[in-house]
């Protein structure tokens, strides 16, 4: 085994994290009799040698030895080795036409195609899981299209398990897209399978969806009704719902692990799970339907009606993609998702709450359902050790708070009192200014006791942001003390957060001016920029602030300086020459901020160059849309030449604006709608 592995010059190669010298040890560990050692080696191989799909020369050099492992019947977990080979191959075939630095997609693809016969053998292996792992290789690596198609047809026979045959339909499309000579035959064969009443409804569903993949531009309006019919056949055979096993109780995160990091890893693990046999099929169909929001909604309505909790759970995640990426009236869908808050399966209920929290700007139709759930739980639900129930309660409370509903307050107070996931409560406390009398004292106390030597777990930045949004001037002494303490420790993250909070109070924060002025010359550019912005918002002395902003235009804080200069307006005319230079900057964000400042300073005479810059940047990077729209709104009637572009944006079904998502998209649409009123 592994003959010649020591003859490879591994030291001359690298992987994602450095020298590839450890690769032989990883390969040898993949056949260890110890399952834990094998699992660790496989994770390391994916994480280093095949990091995020990358293929390095060291990855290609590993392929002969991975094949040895896959062919050796004594190798444990052979299916995982075959799946690794296929994963390397998928990435290599897809990306081998593009040149990448330090990558070897071309070499890996060539090697795997030269060893395509191995996948033919593995696809006929006696072990079902090995066959399943190998089947995609028939579509990726065999260059004889007719032979590969014939092999796939052979493996669609009823004698093979359903999962294998589902893979056959998927792989047939992979083959047809790579070798289009068989695409007509593939479509006809898949159509026949979809119409064959002898096939299981899941198999016919797979054939129907993958047939559509063969000709995505020719999808008819009959596709979704046909899919819904098959989903109902599948649902009719679902056994009565059984309780899912209760997961282990929530454990506190490891010491020194920020709670938001632990939560992010838990979310990532959850998102990658598959709960039903149809999951990948329906995800594929939603991707094919793309902007057909109505048809996708009809499909989701059916998915959410399934008696199978796994199907409903997957449907909620697909609904997340739809409402997050596409505009439209999603109120009916939101109400159906809100109904899942009462599901007997708590994981389904928690997933529904997660969607409503994420997309809170469109969650209004769920408001009363969420409030009723919190009332039923009582505030203790926030800290329950039951994993799914805790997520259900917390996400619901956070969503309701984001809607400004004071009925979330008891849960937030429980979080702050118990210190259980208080960071989540802090994130949304600022959305409840009507409860400032109860929230501000608790937040001030947390801020006073925060450990400023590190950002987490005390989360001073989040607390400062919440206090700024609540707007209670009684918090100003505590914020100023935090600014001073952060400055002494040179904790610039805390200092910047404190400056931002003070800025929200405007002139009321004047007692902090001395502390702010001490920061306008610090070495950290971003802190200096934040201090200058705050100095202007509180002190309002343009003679003091203007020279500081002009200096910042020659740093990385161009956008922040331009924003303050725009607020100063015409008296900042001295900045115009430098701002005009920035209209030719290679970074579109700098151009947008410079153009907006030029308008605010120079007014209508600058209209042509400002509009040209804004619209060009918007076309180049749609994420600039919020900033462009805000400036166009300020321009009023001078923005008339942009109306065709605005109408095109309003007619576009996909969400836009900075970072996408409902909140930014709706803000941008409101600003653009105001511009349209000038017409």
UniProtKB/TrEMBL annotation:
Pfam families: HEAT_PBS. InterPro entries: ARM-like (IPR011989), ARM-type_fold (IPR016024), PBS_lyase_HEAT (IPR004155). SUPFAM superfamilies: ARM repeat (SSF48371). It comes from the Bacteria. This is PBS lyase. It comes from Plantactinospora mayteni. The lineage of its organism: Bacteria, Bacillati, Actinomycetota, Actinomycetes, Micromonosporales.
């Amino acid at each position: 085994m592994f003959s010649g592995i020591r003859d490879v010059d591994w030291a001359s190669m690298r992987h994602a994290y450095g020298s590839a010298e450890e690769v032989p040890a990883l390969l040898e560990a993949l056949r260890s009799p110890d399952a834990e050692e094998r699992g660790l080696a496989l994770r390391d191989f994916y994480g280093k040698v095949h990091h995020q799909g990358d293929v390095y020369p060291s990855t290609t050099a590993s392929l002969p030895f991975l094949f040895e492992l896959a062919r050796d019947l004594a190798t444990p977990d052979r299916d995982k080795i075959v799946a690794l080979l296929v994963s390397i191959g998928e990435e290599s075939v897809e990306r081998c036409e593009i040149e990448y630095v330090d990558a070897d997609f071309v070499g890996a693809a060539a090697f795997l195609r030269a060893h395509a016969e191995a996948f033919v053998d593995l696809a006929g292996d006696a072990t079902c899981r090995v066959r399943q792992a190998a089947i995609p290789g028939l579509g990726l690596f065999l260059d004889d299209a007719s032979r590969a198609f014939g092999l796939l047809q052979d493996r669609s026979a009823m004698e093979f398990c359903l999962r294998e045959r589902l893979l056959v339909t998927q792989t047939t499309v992979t083959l047809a897209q790579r070798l289009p000579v068989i695409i007509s035959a593939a479509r006809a064969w898949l159509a026949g399978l979809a119409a064959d009443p002898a096939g299981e409804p899941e198999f016919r569903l797979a054939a129907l969806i993958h047939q559509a993949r063969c000709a995505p531009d020719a999808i008819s309006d009959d596709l979704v009704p046909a899919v819904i019919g098959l989903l109902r056949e599948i649902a009719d055979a679902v056994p009565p719902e059984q309780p899912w096993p209760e997961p282990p109780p929530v454990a506190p995160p490891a010491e020194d692990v920020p709670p938001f990091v632990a939560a992010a890893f838990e979310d990532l693990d959850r998102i990658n799970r598959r709960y039903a046999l149809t999951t990948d099929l329906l995800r594929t169909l939603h991707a094919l339907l793309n902007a057909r929001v109505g048809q996708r909604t009809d499909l989701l309505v059916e998915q959410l009606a399934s008696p199978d909790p796994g199907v409903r759970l997957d449907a909620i995640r697909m609904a997340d993609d739809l409402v997050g990426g596409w505009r439209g009236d999603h109120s009916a869908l939101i109400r159906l998702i809100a109904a899942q808050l009462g599901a007997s399966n708590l994981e389904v209920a928690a997933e529904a709450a997660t969607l409503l929290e994420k997309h809170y700007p469109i969650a209004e139709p769920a408001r009363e359902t969420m409030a009723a759930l919190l009332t039923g739980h009582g505030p203790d639900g926030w800290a329950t050790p039951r994993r799914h129930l805790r997520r259900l309660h917390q996400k619901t409370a956070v969503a309701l708070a984001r809607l400004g509903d004071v009925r979330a307050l008891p849960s937030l107070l429980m979080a702050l009192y118990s210190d259980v996931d208080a960071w989540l409560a802090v994130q949304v406390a600022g959305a409840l200014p009507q409860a400032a009398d109860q929230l501000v004292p608790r937040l001030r106390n947390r801020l006073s006791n925060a450990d400023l030597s590190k950002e987490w777990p005390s989360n001073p930045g989040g607390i400062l942001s919440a206090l700024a949004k609540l707007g209670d001037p009684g918090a100003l002494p505590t914020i100023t003390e935090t600014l001073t303490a952060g400055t002494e420790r040179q904790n610039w993250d805390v200092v910047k957060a404190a400056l931002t909070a003070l800025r929200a109070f405007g002139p009321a924060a004047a007692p902090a001016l001395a502390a702010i002025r001490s920061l306008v010359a610090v070495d950290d550019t971003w802190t200096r920029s934040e201090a200058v912005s705050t100095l202007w918002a509180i002190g309002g002395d343009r003679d003091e602030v203007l020279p500081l902003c002009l200096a910042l235009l020659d740093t990385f804080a161009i956008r922040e300086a331009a924003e303050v200069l725009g607020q100063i307006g015409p008296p900042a005319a001295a900045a115009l020459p430098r701002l005009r230079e920035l209209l030719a900057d290679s970074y579109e964000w700098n151009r947008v901020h410079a153009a907006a400042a030029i308008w605010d300073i120079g007014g209508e005479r600058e209209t042509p160059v400002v509009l040209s810059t804004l619209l060009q940047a918007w076309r180049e990077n749609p994420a600039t849309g919020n900033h462009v729209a805000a400036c166009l709104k300020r321009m009023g009637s001078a923005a008339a030449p942009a109306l065709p572009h605005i109408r095109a944006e309003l007619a576009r079904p996909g969400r836009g604006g900075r970072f996408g998502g409902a909140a930014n998209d709706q803000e941008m649409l409101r600003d653009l709608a105001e511009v349209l009123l000038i017409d």
